[in-house]
Amino acid sequence: MNPLAELLLNACAETVIAVDAETLTIVSANKQVENMLGYAVNDLIGRPIADIEVGLQDMFFWEEVKNGTRQERHAVEGEYRHRSGNLIAVQKTVRLVDMQGKQVFVLSVHDITATKQMEDETARTASLLAATLESTMDGILVTGLSGGVRHFNHRFAEMWRLPMALFGEEDEPRVLKHLLHQLADPTHFREWFENMLSRPQAEGSIECRLLDGRVYSLSSKPQRLRERPIGRVFSFHDITSLKATEAQLIAARDAAQAASRAKSEFLSHMSHELRTPLNAILGFGKVLEDELEGPPHTIAEHIGKAGKHLLDLINEVLDLASIEAGKMRIQPTAVDLASLIEDCASLVEPLARSRQISLHVTPLEHNRFLVRADARRLKQMALNLLSNAIKYNRDNGRVDITVTAQGDNNWRLNVIDTGIGIDESDLSRLFLPFNRFGERQLEAEGAGIGLAFTRKLARLMDGNVGVESQVGIGSRFWIDLPCAQFEHAAEPVMQKTPLLAGAVSPGKSATLLYIEDDPLSQKLLSTVLSRKRPFYRILTADSGNDGVALARETRPDVILLDQQLPDGMGADFFQALKNQPETQNTPVIALSGNAQPEEVRTVLESGYVAYLVKPLQIDTALTAIDNAIPEKKS
Fold first, then answer.
1. Tens digits of per-residue pLDDT, 237-287?
2. What is the pTM of this model?
3. Which end of the chain has the smaller Cβ count within 10 Å, N or C?
4. Which residues share a beta bridge with 562?
5. What structural domains and CATH numbers belong to the chain?
């Protein structure tokens, strides 16, 4: 080879190898072969081309040459063996030339290993993506920017029941048409779909319902290449079961709310209906008790006591039902146990004295033993335990009241008696409603509700109630409640009915209108007023509408309005009274059998001047009426 030709050959960027067409040995090569294969040029001269060309297609080519077929090849791929033994992917062009009368194959070769690796990686990525798309539970549809279908997975085809004719179909209108035919609202879907295609960077989602009842959640995001949108991906998720569950939950919630409303209405109605007849029993009993003497007076006292006991039982049942219905609301604050115990002990002391039972209260420092509780309800709980300790005690027995620490965060109020005790077999059922184990040994009033109510109340306040007992020795009941910080601890007193100032002087006339559908309640108030306040004139109405009309006509000084009337609720008629000029400033007193504090507070906040709970306390009712009379009548 002349020097110029050799210079040109070595300047070539590709590897060039010359192979004798007869012997198939290498007769020449340029310097690039050293970089690609690791051989010096002289080391390759005379070696068979088969030593470095090891690809299967390469071996077939040279076998054909041996057999007399001498064809050229253009840009074919093959494999070369590096001196180290590693295989190199190559692309080559083979030409047959005449070199000084000798047939020679000239191979122009370049290394494509990096390209092949990139192709393999791309193939692996594509395979992984395809596997991912096929393994997802969502149907996937990939479109171009203009909407042409590029790909969809089998789940998409399954969800939309695509016919085989549409597999591999890039005709977006045909696929979209197939989807639209199955939708309950195809117009909405089409508008959303087209909106997504018109905004390449947008993301969005909708729910679509099919005609057969299935529901899909559909979302769409841009397909991007280096932040540039190149298409759009639509994802379809079957939420039919989720929607069915959601519908069931909504139905259950609505049913629960309806049941809750029914419970509230039942409690309010039963409270009113049970207390209304007691209003007559206790009221007329009180009238007789005040007017009679001797044995008839004693009989009237017995009637009053029995009626009061029945009222207590009704209150307990309604309170327990209120908790069970989730309608009881507590108002936790810091309660001073020292004040509460002193108050409760003074209330039960007469009962204890009547049976020669001694009460022993451990002296406590005020504002040190504070618990987080509803003051009124805690007093009710403590009185329940103290009453039981006296009721089921023996004559000349003893009751101790102490406070101890229970762990780091609770105070325990203990009530210890020397009574009959409770058998161990009964302890597990002691806090169930309507259990009265003590009546086997003693005649004691009660319905067996108090302890069940007390425990439920304690748990509403994040506390608990427990007991230890030995038959014939006595019992220890306790209430555990969380400690509280001092914050001007609430006094444990019962809520009183707010009254207006300025009582009517005896002998001054006033007109009262009593709107009440119960004839006995009307008769009771008329009887009481005729004896206690003869200078008051009373008018009555049996319904709310009649009462509003009568009030407009007679303009009474005070209106007493029952809260549950045959033709509506008291709140509606109260508003009607306030809406007419003749009665808009007339004081109105509410009467109801609903003694729940929340109801009392709500009614008073609406504008009533007082709230009287049935059965009426005669003196309280008279005071409320007296104070409600406008001062101009004084």
1. 999 999 999 999 999 988 887 876 676 666 666 666 777 777 777 778 878
2. 0.46
3. C
4. 591
5. 3-117 (3.30.450.20), 126-242 (3.30.450.20), 254-325 (1.10.287.130), 333-482 (3.30.565.10), 510-628 (3.40.50.2300)
